[in-house]
């Protein structure tokens, strides 16, 4: 793989910009049957919570014409087991690991950051704020700038100083830039855009909602234009804040679209379920796409869609006549 792919996300430097999306790479062991996880820029864990959770009853997943609708309810073994089994396995295998945390109260997020404070192998923390706040009638933290900021602040206050923190935002808000600003002001080093969008399907056979949770999170190709729009808007407002773009990335060109919108990395989620090797494949295709466009460094493509037409990044090979550039 070429060295054009190195990326810098604030305090987090990675050899390449392709990650797994939280919840889509299992514990890492499942994907490791298909490829060496050190080939990823980073592995993002499924969101870990303070205590074990069974998640929602089935059915939890239904297919839509161009994506998945899921209402998992964040099932997982909890932080204790995660620290005993999963994180050490990832560490032993030298996998750059971004630990995703989720909670139902500000205190729970703080507790998780505290538990991660003294353990090795945490390259960064991703704060999944798309969770209901039990202290606010179940209103999702990600929907309100003050609530989102209080979660990020709690993680910042309790995490090991210097640990890179990324806040993962939900797209179904009136103004994502306001939420992004609140998270950055509260101490987030970067943002992950986006989590799933709330959607719903009704089963024509049972005449009832297809999911036990009634509504669920829409992911896959259907959400990509929404995710690209969020990345574009947030990069325009906060050009120096690093962004991890997520939502429907299935090919190198999809990844390039996010990079051009302003992301410095991408995460591959739903695509992994039908192609477990999607991560390394997207990386190879992205490298080829950059080379085909004579873009010498990934960093030169970040946010390029914001530049006026005709702008040529400095690393584009000088000997190529402009009209021959793709
Ligand atoms: C089955 C499934 C489980 C997920 N679990 C999590 C999770 O634990 N934490 C989280 O922040 N996002 C979770 N997500 C959201 C993804 O990380 C991602 O933000 C979203 O699916 C959009 O990307 P995609 O279209 O590539 O899947 C989950 C998505 C799916 C489909």
UniProtKB/TrEMBL annotation:
Pfam families: DHO_dh. It is an enzyme of class 1 (oxidoreductase). It catalyses: (S)-dihydroorotate + A = orotate + AH2. Binds 1 FMN per subunit. SUPFAM superfamilies: FMN-linked oxidoreductases. It is found in: Cytoplasm. This is Dihydroorotate dehydrogenase. Its EC number is 1.3.-.-. Keywords: Cytoplasm, Flavoprotein, FMN, Oxidoreductase, Pyrimidine biosynthesis. CDD domains: DHOD_1B_like. Residues 11-290 form the Dihydroorotate dehydrogenase catalytic domain. It comes from Actinomadura spongiicola.
């Amino acid at each position: 793989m070429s060295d054009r792919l190195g990326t810098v996300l604030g305090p987090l430097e990675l050899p390449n910009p392709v990650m797994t999306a939280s919840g889509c790479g299992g514990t890492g062991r499942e994907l490791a049957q298909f490829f060496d996880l050190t080939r990823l820029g980073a592995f993002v864990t499924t969101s870990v919570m303070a205590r074990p959770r069974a998640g929602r009853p089935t059915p939890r997943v239904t297919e839509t014409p161009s994506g998945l609708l899921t209402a998992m309810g964040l099932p997982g073994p909890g932080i204790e087991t995660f620290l005993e089994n999963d994180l050490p396995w990832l560490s032993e295998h030298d996998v750059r690991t971004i630990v995703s945390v989720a909670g139902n109260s500000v205190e729970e997020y703080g507790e998780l950051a505290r538990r991660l404070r003294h353990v090795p192998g945490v390259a960064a923390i991703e704060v999944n704020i798309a969770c209901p706040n039990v202290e606010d009638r179940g209103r999702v933290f990600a929907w309100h700038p003050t609530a989102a900021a209080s979660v990020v602040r709690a993680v910042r206050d309790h995490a090991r100083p210097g640990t890179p923190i990324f806040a993962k935002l939900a797209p179904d808000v009136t103004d994502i830039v306001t939420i992004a600003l609140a998270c950055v002001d509260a101490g987030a080093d970067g943002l992950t855009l986006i989590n799933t969008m709330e959607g719903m399907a009704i089963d024509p056979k049972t005449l009832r909602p297809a999911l036990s949770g009634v509504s669920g999170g829409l992911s896959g190709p259907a959400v990509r234009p929404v995710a690209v729009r969020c990345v574009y808007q947030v990069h325009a407002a906060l050009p120096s804040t690093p962004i991890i773009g997520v939502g429907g990335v299935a090919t190198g060109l999809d990844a390039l679209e996010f990079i051009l919108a302003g992301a410095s990395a991408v995460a591959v989620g739903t695509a992994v379920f039908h192609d477990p090797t999607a991560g390394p494949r997207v990386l190879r295709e992205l490298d080829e796409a950059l080379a085909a466009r004579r873009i010498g460094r990934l960093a030169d493509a970040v946010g390029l869609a914001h530049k006026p037409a005709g702008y040529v990044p400095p690393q584009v090979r000088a000997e190529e006549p402009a009209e021959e550039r793709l």
